[in-house]
Amino acid sequence: MDGTDPRRAVEAVWRIESARLIAGLARRVGDLGLAEELAQDALVAALETWPRTGVPERPGAWLMTTAGRRAIDRFRREERFRAKCAELAREFESGLRGDDGTAAFARAEERADGADPYQDDLLRLIFVSCHPVLPRAGRVALTLRLLGGLSTAEIARAFLVPEATVAQRIVRAKRTLARRGVPFAVPREEGELRERLGSVLEVVYLVFNEGYAATAGDDWVRPALCEDAVRLGRVLAGLLPAEGEVLGLLALMELQAARVPARVAASGVAVRLDIQDRSLWDPLLLRRGLEGVERAVAAGGGPGAALGAYTLQAAIAACHVSGETDWDAVAGLYARLAAVAPSPVVELNRAVAVGRSRGAAEGLELVEKLVAGGELEEYHLLWSVRGDLRQRLGLPAADDFSRALTLATNEAERRLLAGRLHAARTHRPPP
């Protein structure tokens, strides 16, 4: 890394290596909170040292070795010295001959090469940070902190909450894991593994969705959050390459991320999918996403198999980016999704697809059932979809768009809805 600015290099290395560093330390010391402290100590040491000495050839190895030395010093100062020091010394001291610790790091890498993926430190860290004993907000904050390498301030800015709130969520999450005695391990039982993997995928997709369609604030999209989620998805896919739902989630995020550049107009107004400038879509992400859908479907047993929810959503996203949208296929996929993961939101999306494939009247019939059910009464998209379908049928729609505007909390989306409300009131074509 000759010629690289040391401080910027530290930031870049931390974003890339922090998850692996914390994961490796957590396995060795058996304490997630302590592992993060040691990793932070190593980061501080790098900030102090690299501007003077330059960035080492293997910065990740330098951080691991430095954190290892701090761990040994810490246990030597504590009463647990005899119980822990011998174990840690075998892990770290044997390779501390070189100045940058590359020998120790290389040996650790050799042990990992060819190992069962369930033994991978990163995989353990993912399953711990997304453990179901934690509340959803705690899982998201801890995952972005430990696996995304984001600072507390960055997480707070991304989710538009006070920094103190994020800090409290992270502290509480780590305390809960320690109090509940959650092991730093991947569950072995099939049932628990499936449950925990579902929690992991949920967290990653929550992060992505907040970047793809922010719930509040001025910006409708936050590309950095989408990028973090896709990066986490790729880590998961590398660790669990045979899991169809992992591949499905990654493909889904890549296909949606490809459309991010076209989702907001220069004026700041949200742009609907059907009128987006497709030349702005990212061709590399599109290609990767479409190839990922094929792999996910194959891993799930093939097109006619009972595919998982993320794989079905990825297949739906593929329909939207493959030339003219095949609305019959989309409606059929939403019917399959409703059978696998039933929810009012899925039914609303199915109504949109039915309205496009079989006519606005059939779509509106499905929406009216949701209105009568009352579960989505405070969901702005219910009223936006209802207004769109009524408008296409020549029925009054202003009240629906007005209600959607009242419930929406994102300013870019509110501007879109305000335009649609104005068009409905003046009987003009929708924008």
Automatic annotation (TrEMBL):
GO BP: DNA-templated transcription initiation
Keyword Transcription regulation listed: yes
Gene Ontology MF annotations: DNA binding; sigma factor activity
RNA polymerase sigma-70 region domain sequence ranges: 20-80
DUF6596 domain ranges (all copies): 196-296
Keywords of this entry: Sigma factor, Transcription, Transcription regulation
InterPro entries named in the record: DUF6596, RNA_pol_sigma70_r2, RNA_pol_sigma70_r4_t2, RNA_pol_sigma_r2, RNA_pol_sigma_r3/r4-like, WH-like_DNA-bd_sf
RNA polymerase sigma factor 70 region 4 type domain sequence ranges: 127-177
Assigned protein family: Belongs to the sigma-70 factor family. ECF subfamily.
Protein's name according to its UniProt entry: RNA polymerase subunit sigma-24
Natural source organism: Mangrovactinospora gilvigrisea
Phylogenetic lineage: Bacteria, Bacillati, Actinomycetota, Actinomycetes, Kitasatosporales
